Amino acid sequence: MSRESFQDLKPTIWIGKRGITNVMIDEIRRQLKDRKVVKVRWLRNTEVDPEEIAASAGAVLVEVRGRTLVLTERRNRSPGHNPRNI
């Protein structure tokens, strides 16, 4: 999926005034497993750390714009695979 297509993606997770919770992290994980890409939005009066959300969900933070972030599923690499070895 290209970066341009992230703009067309509708947010499927909304973070409210309670902020990020364990239930929300579990939902992000579930949606990542089903969709591979998840768009998350949050309220203006909510403090959110996008990198912390990605780390907690075991996802890759692709993009942050304003109060919106895009996460993708972390790809599993084979044990012997090292991208630096050519």
From TrEMBL:
SUPFAM superfamilies registered for this protein in UniProt: YhbY-like
InterPro entries: RNA-binding_CRM, RNA-binding_domain, YhbY-like_sf
Domain (CRM) ranges: 1-84
Keywords, in A-Z order: RNA-binding
GO molecular function: RNA binding
Pfam families: CRS1_YhbY (PF01985)
PANTHER family from the UniProt entry: RNA-BINDING PROTEIN YHBY
Record's protein name: CRM domain-containing protein
Species: Methanoculleus marisnigri (strain ATCC 35101 / DSM 1498 / JR1)
Lineage summary: Archaea, Methanobacteriati, Methanobacteriota, Stenosarchaea group, Methanomicrobia
